[in-house]
Amino acid sequence: QHTPIFVELMALAFTCDITRSVTFMLGNGTSNNDFQFLIGKSTPHHGTSHHNNDAGNLASLTKIDTWEMEQVASLLSKLDAAQDSDGKTVLDNTTFYLSSDIADGNSHNHYDMPIIVAGGAGGKLKIDGSHVNYTPGLKFPRGLIGEKSDVHTGRVFISMLQAHGIMQDTFGEATGGPLPELMNI
Questions:
Q1: What 3-state DSSP class applies to 100?
Q2: Helix (H, G, I), strand (E, B) or coil at 140
Q3: What is the mean pLDDT of residues 9-33?
Q4: Phi, psi (5° rounding) for residue 159?
Q5: Alpha helix (H) residue ranges in 82-178
Q6: pLDDT of residue 148
Q7: By C-alpha distance, which of 113, 86, 95 is closest to 184?
Q8: Is residue 44 within 8 Å of residue 32, measured between CB atoms?
Q9: pTM, 2 dp
């Protein structure tokens, strides 16, 4: 019941220009948020993410993930429907980042992270609905050791920083500057 209300409040805060920055965490990595309302029986998220490839657990996890993405879609739709003072949509002038603190709860891997970047940073980010897979050779389910790549999640942050005029070429352990496929500048 609370999440759709928070989604509405975030959209209104941006639309009314009360803020241009929001951080929202539905639940941390060990969250035991119970999705009984969705599944019909007690289904703590953390325990369900340790699915052990069980069909029932995977089905429940898919329902949870789908519901969470529906909340994201609701927020992005609201931002895309609201006109900003410059005639663009609020979403056009927003940078939206979503990820998880882990790629797969069953194996606890921290590589091949799912990330969604939306909005356009006022035209500085090239967000066009593309799906970019930096490790296309990996098959699902992923193993415990990730394929080495010069693409690091930190480069997404470098891209967002540069889109907002902060000309940083490193972020934590990430080097190599922004990801060209994300930049319009």
A1: coil
A2: coil
A3: 87
A4: -60, -45
A5: 153-163
A6: 56
A7: 95
A8: yes
A9: 0.86
Residue 86's SS3 state is coil
At 141-164, the pLDDT tens digits run 555 545 555 667 889 999 999 999
> Helix, strand, or coil here: 31?
coil
Residue 69 near residue 99, CB atoms below 8 Å: no
**Across 45-49, 68-72, 128-132, which has the greatest mean pLDDT?**
68-72
- For residue 47 the two structure tokens come to 């325990």
Residue 63, beta-bridge partner list: none
Query: CA–CA distance from 13 to each of 60, 80, 83, 154 (Å)?
Result: 33, 14, 13, 28
Q: Within the chain, where are the H helices?
A: 2-15, 36-39, 45-49, 55-81, 153-163
User: What would the pLDDT profile of 110-147 be if each residue is shown by its tens digit?
Assistant: 767 788 999 999 999 998 888 877 766 666 555 554 55
CB 168 within 8 A of CB 162: yes
Q: Residue-wise over 28-41: b if at least 16 C-beta within 10 A, else e?
A: eeeeeeebeeebee
